[in-house]
Amino acid sequence: MKSYRWAVVLVGLVLGIMLSAQYRVTREIQASEPVQRARELSTQVEKLRADRDDFQDGVDNLRSQLDKVTAGPLVSEIKEALEHARVLAGVSELSGQGVEVTLNDSNVALKPGQNPNLYVLHDEDILRVLNELRAAGAEALSINGQRLLATTEVRCTGPTILLNKNKRLAPPYVITAIGNPDTLESSLKMKGGVAETLQFWGIQVSVKKIPEVIVPAYSGGIRFEYARAGD
Amino acid sequence: MALNRITYFYITIFAVVVGLMLALQFRTASSRDLSVPLDRAQELTIEKKQLEKDVNQLQEEATDLESKLEEAVKSHAGAAGALESELYKIKLYAGLLPVVGPGVEVGLDSTPGAGMRYGDHEGYIIKDEDLLKVLNDLRGAGSEAIAVNGQRILATSEVRLAGNHINVNLTRLSSPYKIIAIGNPGTLKSSLELKGGLVEYLSEQGALVSVETKEQIRVPAYDGPLRLEYARPAQK
Q1: B 163-192 residues with CB below 8 A of A?
Q2: Chain B from 44 to 63: CB within 8 A of any A CB
Q3: Collapsing DSSP states into helix, strand and coil, what is residue A230?
Q4: Is this complex's ipTM strictly greater than 0.90?
Q5: A6 vs B contacts (CB less than 8 Å)
Q6: Which region among A145-149, B31-35, B174-178, B189-193 has the lowest average model confidence (pLDDT)?
Q7: Residue B156's closest CA among A134, A100, A177?
Q8: Cross-chain residue pair A15–B17, CB shorter than 8 Å
Q9: Which among A112, A146, A98 has a CA at the least distance from the CA of B232?
Q10: Is the pTM of this model over 0.90?
């Protein structure tokens, strides 16, 4: 009878200590600075992203409203020029004939001692593919839904690429281009062309002709901080 | 005997609970070391900054468009005026207007006396890829307008080797190449002159490379034909 009571008391004590210790550790983890900061930051980023999309919709809306309220022979010429300029500036969503190019890292099984870096996609490879498409007369381009502007860079950072300063993309990379589908396809697939050189490293390149591709508008603001209109 | 059995029963349950707690405690303690790596927070901070910039710019754009819209509904003349000024702004972004500002001037030249043949070992000939990389670096460093030998770089500009020349905007350019870019001069210059960067690489190859910051440079407008046969605004 007595030993049974003592056992219960002992177990209860231990349990209590464990509980309080556990509680403290959990609290500490939640309060630990980097975790909390990252968590806070990611909610802020999430919210900002939603804000950005809202404002983007608002701006798109205002643009089409401006187009609607203005009518008449006098402005139709300006409107046409405006539409054209918007295509070049990358601020309107476009559709048309074109190609979809999919690029993915190598599927070659590496032998020990081989440099794995040779078998993954580099920013250079993507630049070259884009350059070929431009040379073949592509009128608008996007990668994984990110519109390419005159100021768009392609940067390799680890296994991902960085575009338009902060848009991080992961493979596979899908490039959509509007233009003559046959010309675009053959510019990549010609003998000694980009597709062939990349395939040497096992990098997978596939080109699909599509009767109607969509190239989205640039999402984000455009503003020049250094450049001003010249004479 | 009956009491004893109850005792054992309780002790068993407590032991199980304590065991569970111990295991849990151990797991939490070991996962503590795996707190978020610093660069993740850093990355989020960068993304946040860029998003804030985007939101600000879009807000400005919206106010600008709102005032134009107000102007446009007032009168017919107002409508034309509002559209004209919108056109001007979009043309500026598209590269259809000349711009001025601070920036850098990058000179790229093949080694003097280099053979005419591509791949000649005597000297180094600037290739399209070299130019592409320089342009990409300048874009990454935030340039707002770029031109190569007077050809404004648009979203659709190609840089392509054709014989001994390089075609940009379907125009033949030849060495020496002069690239001008508007942006923060210091950032642009240092992005090219990084250790192990492009200037070092190209100089080692034997090319003549120079980077100069400029207080005021002029980047010309694109003046080629505007070809749009396939792209049209998407129906929403």
Answers
A1: 167, 182-184
A2: 44-48, 50-62
A3: coil
A4: no
A5: none
A6: B31-35
A7: A134
A8: yes
A9: A98
A10: no
